[in-house]
Design goal:
The protein is α+β, with helices and mostly antiparallel strands. Helix content is 17%, strand content 39%. The longest helix has 12 residues.
Length: 300
């Protein structure tokens, strides 16, 4: 590991090391140490790119990332050392430490900080989907349900409300390869034993409130969703954790995985709570759902 003062002295010497900024290209373009070149450690060809830029594996190399809060530079050093580079040092303080001392930084145009635009965001039904898993004593079945439409109204930050419509007639099974059994199961699910899609072709989720966790790191669950699910003509409250992210162009993406007790919505078939001596016909009450929502271009 190398300190800021040691790096500064080396860069000012007659034989400076090769300095590599290991952050993504857009981060490097916004700000970097003047003498640095860019090879992003998050890319799968990181080692190959460094090898092309610096063919001599015995060359003196210093890698740095954003700050001590990130493992990017130590990961870069480890990758390069495993690949046979013998002269690699890790400037663990990174750009933040360099800037804190008032040392020269080359700056470009910082990418704009995007916030979700206030107003309605329509669901991109082609990219949004609900997955399901139902279980019985013999195993499990998995499948999908398409979104028919939906929207979320953003007020401030990610606070808002909205409504999402599921096309229950689109329910499909994805685990049964035998087409006959697959059709039989789907017909069973669409019948009045389960979701009665002739009478109830859609289900709706009325989003009432989003509570954000400002302490969550990127990629962690960062929101609690509260609302009401109307399924098979029955409306019940439903809350679940979710991960909400802002995509380029002001789009929103949400990912959630949670369980529901189907009997709360009158889906009683094969439930041991309501039928006795079911044997192999027992169906577990819990259905596991995966929800992936992407909005269309951000509201304008």
């Amino acid at each position: 590991m190398i300190t800021r003062n040691e790096l500064k002295a080396l860069l000012e010497s007659g034989a400076p090391p090769a300095l590599i900024d290991v952050m993504p290209g857009e981060v490097f373009a916004a700000a970097h140490i003047k003498e640095a070149r860019n090879c992003c450690v998050y890319e799968i060809d990181f080692v190959e790119k460094v090898g092309k830029a610096i063919p001599d594996k015995a060359a003196a190399i210093v890698v740095y990332g954003s700050s001590t809060h990130s493992l990017s530079s130590s990961t870069a050093k480890e990758k390069l050392s495993h690949a046979g580079f013998t002269g690699v040092q890790d400037y663990r303080g990174g750009l933040a430490d360099w800037e804190s001392a008032g040392l020269p930084v080359e700056r470009g145009q910082s990418p704009p900080e995007e916030n979700p635009r206030a107003g309605p965001h329509q669901v991109d039904t082609a990219r949004s989907l609900v997955t399901w898993t139902g279980r019985n004593i013999n195993g499990a079945h998995t499948g999908t349900i398409a979104l028919k439409g939906g929207w979320i109204e953003i007020t401030t930050a990610l606070a808002g409300h909205g409504e999402f419509t599921l096309d229950m007639d689109s329910i499909a099974d994805t685990d049964l390869a035998d087409s006959t059994y697959n059709r039989m199961l789907v017909a069973h699910l669409k019948s009045d034993d389960f979701f009665d899609t002739v009478r109830f072709p859609v289900a709706t989720f009325n989003l009432k409130h989003i509570t954000l966790n400002s302490h969550a790191h990127p990629g962690q669950i960062n929101a609690d969703i509260d609302g009401e699910l109307t399924l098979k003509g029955v409306t019940e409250g439903l809350g679940f954790p979710a991960l909400i992210e802002l995509l380029p162009g002001g789009k929103l993406a949400a990912e959630a995985h949670f369980d529901i007790d189907r009997t709360r919505w009158g889906v009683m078939y094969g439930s041991g709570r309501f039928y006795e001596k079911l044997g192999k016909h027992l169906v577990h009450d819990i259905i596991s759902l995966g929800v992936h929502i992407v909005t269309a271009q951000g509201a304008g």
